[in-house]
């Protein structure tokens, strides 16, 4: 067995399982240290929690790679922690630089209004109730004969993986709307690109049987992440260096209001 094959067989699973921690630990610590989740999009934990929960239930019908199941379980813990920290440190209602939900925000900035203010509630309880009901419904379905249907299992997998694959899309739209990548962490982009590279290598080169739904959705997410990298390169080249201003805090505050932070 070659060195590359050994790395894929033993190194890739460890990387995949630990990737939720390496990708989001910095965000959690940053919010905890600053005591503010201003600029952070709550859509990120929503997307990742829904996708990971669906992938866990998908495993009971498909029995795919144990490393991918472990990754989904770790992701649930990490994203639940991130959600709690973000909710506990939300800015006061109406504060500048409040929590962003771009590009899926209300009509105030040209977006659409979410039904019943979905995932934009001021109270903390509805977020956990939604996740609890979501898990409970899937559990009830799993205990019925429906869970034996190949069609149902395929739908679970495709929906879960498709939801995860759209994770970069809000950031892409936000960058286009703002004409910059301000507020988007380079460390997050780097971890996504490195994760995509390792994930694609594992999907197509490892000896384990990986369902094609993982491969197709993984390729789509990989393309989106690399486009994000192109966006970052393009916008940073186009952005001129800002002159030092004597107005200090006023200019920095005005610039901060345009900052769209997705991660």
Describe this structure in words.
The protein is mainly α and 263 residues long. It has one domain. Helix content is 67%, strand content 0%. The chain is globular and about 50 Å long. It is a multi-pass membrane protein.
Strand-pairing-aware structural class: mainly alpha
* Low-pLDDT segments, ≥5 res: 95-110, 244-263
Q: What share of the residues lie within helices?
A: 55-70%
Distance between the ends? 39 Å
Shape, principal axes of CA atoms? globular
Which H/E pattern describes the elements?
A: HHHHHHHHH
Per DSSP E runs of 2 or more residues, the count of β-strands stands at 0
Bin the strand percentage. Answer: under 5%
List the helices and strands and how they pair.
Blueprint: H1 3-34, H2 43-62, H3 66-88, H4 125-142, H5 150-165, H6 168-178, H7 186-205, H8 212-238, H9 249-256
Helix pairs in contact: 1-3, 1-7, 2-3, 2-4, 2-5, 5-8, 6-8, 7-8
Descriptive keywords:
mainly alpha, 263 residues, disordered C terminus, single chain, globular, transmembrane
Short structural description:
With 263 residues, this protein is mainly alpha-helical. The protein has helices at residues 3-34, 43-62, 66-88, 125-142, 150-165, 168-178, 186-205, 212-238, 249-256.
